[in-house]
Amino acid sequence: MMNLKNPAPACLTISACFLLSATAFGAGTPLYETDVRPILKAQCFHCHGEEEEIEGQLDLRLRRLIVNGGDSGPAIVPGDAKGSLLLERIESGEMPPGKVNLSAKEIETIRTWINSGAKTARDEPEDIAADDFTYEERNFWSFQPIGKPDPPAVKETSRVRNPIDAFLLAKLEEAGLTFAPDADRRTLIRRLSFDLIGLPPTPEEVNTFLTDDRPDAYERLVDRLLASPHYGERWGRHWLDVAGYADSEGFSEADTERQSAWRYRDYVIQSMNDDKPFDQFIREQLAGDEMIAGPFKNLSEENVEKLTATGFLRMAPDGTGTGGVDQNLARNQVMAETLKIVSSSLMGMTVGCAECHSHRYDPIRHTDYYSMRAIFEPALDWKKWRTPKSRRISLYTDEDKRLAAEIEAKAKLVDDERVALTAKFIDQTLDAQLLKLEESVREPLRVAYKTAASKRTAEQKELLDKFPKILKISAGSLYLYDREIRVEAAAIDNERKKKEKEFVEQAQEIALSSLPEEERAAVKTALSKAASARTPEQKTLIGMHSKQIVTLANLEEFAPESAAEIERLKKAADDLRATQKADRIKEFQNKAAEIRNTKPKEGFVRALTEVAGQLPETHLFFRGDFEQPKEKLAPAGLSILDDYGLVSIPVNDSNLATSGRRLAFAKRLTDGNHPLTARVLVNRFWLNHFGRGIVETPGDFGFLGARPTHPELLDWMASEFMSGGWKLKPFHKMLVTSTAYRQSSKRTEAGDEVDPDNKLYSHMSIRRLEAETLRDAILAVSGKLNRKMFGEPVPVMEDAVGQIVLGKENLDGERKPLAAIDLQGEEYRRSLYIQVRRSRPLGVLAAFDMPEMEPNCTIRSSSTVTPQALMLMNSDFSTQFAGEFASRVEESSPNDFKKQCAQAWELAYCTPPSEQQVQRGVDYLTQQKEFYQQNPPAGVKATPDHLALTSFCQALMSSNAFLYVD
């Protein structure tokens, strides 16, 4: 975690890894603006140009100033690199100071620039402000207005289904390539299902699509999937990544649970399903509270929705509700992480480095960062901080409160009864204990006990000290005296049981006394044995004399006085137990609790709001240190975008009850003129369909980010998205009905040679399922998927061996595990609903690159590592659901390996196996069955057939055909 008091190194660690120069790419003679300035800006400007005090009076921001030099004389001699002090200091490692040195390529760029005359791209200004922008910065591609270029003309017009295809095909044709043929229908429905709803299609759905011979069958399939409620779950998950969604606070090891965060998750899902316009979606998340009037009571569903939306601004790690942390550090860290989430998700910019100094690579001023911070400061005032719990907004209505008050009054009556009964029991216990003492001390002790502790005399205190058992009598100690009662009752029970045996034996002896001695002995021998151990002859003998057999049940017939004695002892024990007081009190407590449980449950919204009339001042922090505040700054966006006619953000909007800052900022981002927002959004949509963004760094549209492979297409889509009302579902349909999306994943030699990374989209790239989608697919094919939507998350916990698994912790007072708590099928819900604990990622999801929200995730990695194979082959999760998969297949096709193999194959891969594949499957099943017959696993009740099929199903779910979508 970055320390805000000294955050500068965090922004410098990457600086030696990049060379933004034309020379590095063989572009000819280097120029100051395009080749040298980016290097010096990243490494040197913080001492030689950006601060008020310029080290050694050497300003490196203009070529002319470099030639003039500083205290040590001219820094460069144009045409003579060897005689240039700047290069000498850099090559010696003396400059820049610290551990980060320039790379060999960067040094060579500077050397070549000096030797070639230290040329500039244009005439330099007479003067330059510390935060001015260069021509290159002003004209950087992502800061330009979004245009809508016409789709280019192409030769192969038959492959153009919509303008997207024209833009892509034009570049393909330039490279001598074209689209791959369309994928077959089985491939398309599997691809579409995973892309749009995150679940595999069922065999029935596949068959319906295959047999639909209408010309618009594909479009109908797209419409059906877009209308599915599971669409919102799939695309909500994508947004939750960039929002940094988590169900815990993070920041420290405590990682406390984040109550009610799930409401924001549900808001996102529902917004996706409703196809809420994205401009509205963004405005609600940034300023939902500013769109409604306070106070926030008796809220309508619409207003609850808007407040819930601001949970977006509550997703940053927040340790301010945890003890043992530096509160000022934690508060400022919340603000810093919130700005990272907002800027990367909505603007595709990395503003974080500007917290300590002007951004080394992007034209983001140090002042820009704090002006942007000022937008959020009224709601996140670090000097008048509100902890997570204190920010909650209750969903209780006045009617809820009235009903709760009525119920509380009823519960209070039961409480009053309990209090009165407790006082009575205390008196009874006191009397009982006093009777055990000498009569002379009884009354003095009673008086001393009844006297308030603060008013007792010294003699009374001394007396009570001598009889601690009396002093300790209280409501909380009644159970101790109940224990004595239980001991006494148990003693009576033991006496009763002893007499029962004795009385029955005595009565039996009398009852059998009239029999001949030999016969009497035989009956007694038979009676001495347990009924199950008696021989047939003994059973017959007892049957013959059944009227002379004495039992406890018929003792009264043979010995009425003995039976009466037994009953007296039983009643004495029962009466004694009836005097137990703690249990009676507990009954009243339980009754009151039951009544209170009928109150309307009070829900809360985790929202971001402002305190009325509270307008904190925002100051620039010198080098990011909150203990070194400098000049006051007004709220504003990025200065580099000022030329695009964006209105200023008010300090305090008089038309609103709030400052209006966030609402103005939200409107700025979504007014259609902002050059970043729509580009960033459509690029992310494209990424999640094609596996790669047109800009491959979706969270960084700045100088260090990738350049767009198809800039005209990106702008056309951004413009189309906005003109279409910022609606995502129509945009999806446009993407997935394009030839580019519908093509197969078949590669060609020409394509591999010209475009090995498929950046021109000559075929569909194969993609691995994300962690959550993989788990959901396993649940789906096993037949166990619980499709319940919304609500509180499925909890996670640490098991006995330290793995993170689904479950509720159930520990005793010593934190030892008790019996597992049944999750009632919640464990089979989609992965989206599993609790996201930053310190407790679910094992099966973590293995497959589920992101850590620190603070968010703008692009997921897709690794291939050994633990993934081990997880699929050996984990409890994998073996459990392979078994469930096998049971599902067995139920449909019992005792038929051939049918089982074919059904399992089609469930897993959405395509039937060939005859050869079926035969190989049957051979495998037969071999495995024989193995388990000869080597039955210890303690396993499953049949060899089931174990063999489980192994087969596990192999299917571990294969690339299951893990990847083509």
UniProtKB/TrEMBL annotation:
Coiled coil: none
Pfam families registered for this protein in UniProt: PSCyt1, PSCyt2, PSD1
One GO MF term attached to the UniProt entry: heme binding
Keywords: Heme, Iron, Metal-binding, Signal
Transmembrane segments: none
Domain spans labelled Cytochrome c: 23-118
UniProt xrefs under InterPro entries: Cyt_c-like_dom (IPR009056), Cyt_c_Planctomycete-type (IPR011429), DUF1549 (IPR011444), DUF1553 (IPR022655)
Signal peptide range: 1-26
PANTHER family given in the database record: CYCLOINULO-OLIGOSACCHARIDE FRUCTANOTRANSFERASE-RELATED, F-BOX DOMAIN-CONTAINING PROTEIN
UniProt protein name: Planctomycete cytochrome C
